[in-house]
Amino acid sequence: MAVSKDTTIMVDRPKCTATSLDSFSTAASDHHKHIPNIYKEKLAALEKDARHCKITLQDDLRVLNQKITEVEEIRDRSLRDIQNNVEVMIKELIEKGEKLKIKVEASYKKKREVSNQKIIKLQYETKKSEEKKDTTLRFINSNVQEMVKQIKENGEKMKNEVESMYKKENKVLEFQLNALRTNVSETDRKLSFIQLFYETFGT
Question: Phi, psi (5° rounding) for residue 14?
Answer without folding.
Answer: -65, 145
